[in-house]
Amino acid sequence: MNPHENTPHLDPGADVTTPTAARTDTRPVLQLDGVSKRYGAVQALSDVHLTVRPGRVHALLGENGAGKSTLMGVATGVTQPDTGAILVQGEDVGVLTPDAAGRRGIAIVHQHPAVLPDLTVAENLRAGLPAGGRGRDLRGVLDRVGAALDLEDRVDDLSVAQKHVLEIAKAVALEPAVLILDEPTAPLGGDQVDDLFDQVRRAVERGTAVVYITHRLAEVREIAHEVTVLRDGRVTGHAEVADLTDDQMLRMIIGRELTSTFPDKLTTSADAPVVLQVRGLSGAGFHDVDLQARRGEIVGLAGIVGNGQSEFLRALGGLSSTTAGTVELDGAALKGRSLVERTAYMPADRHREGVMPNLSVRENAAVASLRSLARRGFVDARRENSVVGTESAKLALKTASLESGIMSLSGGNQQKVVMTRALLSSPKILLSDEPTQGVDVGARSEIYTLMRAVAAEGVPVVVVSSDAKELEGLCDRVVVVSRGRVVAELTGGDVTEEAITGAVVGADHRVAHGGDAAQVTTGTGRSRTTAAGRWSHFLRGDYAPAVILAAVVVGFGAYVFSQNSRYLAAFNISSVLILLTALAFISLGQGIVIMTGGIDLSLGPLAGLLVVIASFFVNDNKPYALVYLAFGIMLAVAVASGVVNGVLVRYGGFTPVAASLTLYIALQGVSLLLRPFQGGFISAAVSDALTTTVGPVPVAFLVVVVVALGLEFGLRRSNWGRSLRAVGSSEESARRLGVKVNRVHVLAYVGAAVMTFCGALLLMAQIGVGDPTQGVTYTLTSITAVVLGGASLLGGRGSFIGTLLGAVLLQQILNATTFLNLSQTYQYVFQGVLILVAAAIYTRARSTRRVVA
């Protein structure tokens, strides 16, 4: 039984007396009883009890690292507790998985959105909705939360705030029994927060139970009915919000009295020297911006999210190009690399730009200051540990060890590491985009104090924040930006929350500055894509490479035909398509694996081994039963190979390269053991059957085209395809969405092996003899075809149509060199040039961002 269910509970050390709270007799919809969770030496949760009732907002508070997100991970099946029980609607569910949690009506908006960056907004919605969103008005889902997003936008192109809005839209559309909101307002502007609160109130009216995690007490006061506080993984308080003052809640959260969140501002004279002077700076998203910072000043940039503040900050740090204007530091004009070397930039999206996930806390903190920590070219480990430890202590960084992985820390503690790195680099300018996003009230005070100390030492500090209260308490000067232009500047006593908000809302944000916008927003908040936007979506989409390849194939074919008319002879067409079919099948298999972010180097030797096996059974005068048995053995070997690869990668701890390279060597060794030399002629009847043509076109080629179209349809429309792309796009987000990640990976390798089996049948018919060396070249050629088709080697992006066309072009090049009387060297030259050109074109096309109104 939950000991906190009927009486308020406070930490004795908090010294707070709370009146008895009124309780509801409504049956709990979610209960966590005695939940504990340990990560190594860190006790993340210890005997935690939480009761969530329908029709109420239950605020969950605590400092960064207190265990809030871990607890909600338990509630949603992402994290398995060491001990404790999970009850949904009064039923003990035992082991809970994300998929089971979703079926039981538990939805969550994560602090770091569980979105799939390589998929579009529409595809993300389908991935998060039951039955793939069939029958749902996806545009209506977005409009419901006021999300002015285009359904065809690639999520990777969205801002942090837009990703959060998308995550909120998915969760609200589910109309769940329990809605968990983990720091939902951290990146949102005022209007977006109001829209969110409206949705929360409507959900509560429908009887939804809402768990609301936040660091903002004003939001708790506005939206929540009751509150539970965690500290160091334990419950330290539980009461009705109406029964607590803000000071009481603060003491419950941090266990001490917090006299002031913001440090005292310095008295800056108008005669104080100007350290930073920006004149007429223009670039993508901002225009003709003037800004100055005197010694000791902190300058804030305010405005509705997406109006150019963040773009200007990046340009100020030399991270993006400018078209006009100057940046002067202590009277010296700086630009480009000079700015990068003299600035420390703290990004709003710390997961994407702020932290290196595979490095430790120490490595993340010290990476920008290695030169100053080095002696004779080697890092002084003792000094590195000392300075990182000292700077981390100033921010009260919570970590088991400086050698802990950065991703084992809470979001707020990761932000502290980002700031530690910034301070250790001894910057001449400190730039921070949303510095306290997802950071608790105690840590905010520490960050503000350090920023003030940095400014006092003469280092200009420029802060972008969507929180007017934060700008008021921290900044000496605030510049308000609208549509990429400065519309107001507030200094000294004029820097107030009311004045900042008034300047922001009084500006005209309705129309994007400049020429044709790719996207405009209607009066209802609905996003409408223009012709320019549709073209941009196409260029950044998965089918642009296929169109380019098709054009190259036709153009190149026309050129070769103009040089040699025999190029389009029926015999040549038939021969080329037979050769192409084998490569196409194997390339499609490689594409399946690459879509998950893996790679299979063993497909070439596997194809060779399958032909060697066939050479012992598929011979002239052998009974058909033996031939069919041979095909069964070949398929079984292929499937076994795929299973071994998948198991090594997902359960054996091997990287995809290491696992498939190991199998590459093993398969090639078995082939040479079975057939040290060529031998075992393939039955002519079987070969003829496999190479049957309709006119000059082999039936097998028509089959591979149908297979490619079927795979493409499945990739876009089926749960299998969405799972495949989701895993490749973001494995962690896919897991949160309930995708069985390990199974998807293993089946991808099996699918690749089955496709290779199909390719081996055609290879067998082509060479007509068991040759252990014939399949090896297909490994690199298949990877090349997939890359030419526009797939990302990181996974999540690509198309099977593009892969098929990539294989067509490669086979065309091999064939054309003969008709052009060129040596074999040109085959490799052409392939290399094509890959370089394709990579340049695709990268350029996909880096073209739309203009947002």
UniProtKB/TrEMBL annotation:
InterPro entries: AAA+_ATPase, ABC_carbohydrate_import_ATPase, ABC_transp_permease, ABC_transporter-like_ATP-bd, P-loop_NTPase. Residues 1-23 are annotated as: Disordered. Residues 30-257, 270-508 form the ABC transporter domain. One of its GO terms (molecular function) is ATP binding. The chain crosses the membrane at residues 543-561, 567-586, 624-644, 651-674, 694-715, 746-769, 775-794, 801-822, 828-845. CDD domains: ABC_Carb_Monos_I, ABC_Carb_Monos_II, TM_PBP1_transp_AraH_like. It is found in: Cell membrane. The keyword Cell wall biogenesis/degradation does not apply. It comes from the Bacteria. SMART domains: AAA. It is a multi-pass membrane protein. The keyword Transport applies. GO terms for cellular component: plasma membrane. Keywords: ATP-binding, Cell membrane, Membrane, Nucleotide-binding, Sugar transport, Translocase, Transmembrane, Transmembrane helix, Transport. This is Ribose transport system ATP-binding protein.
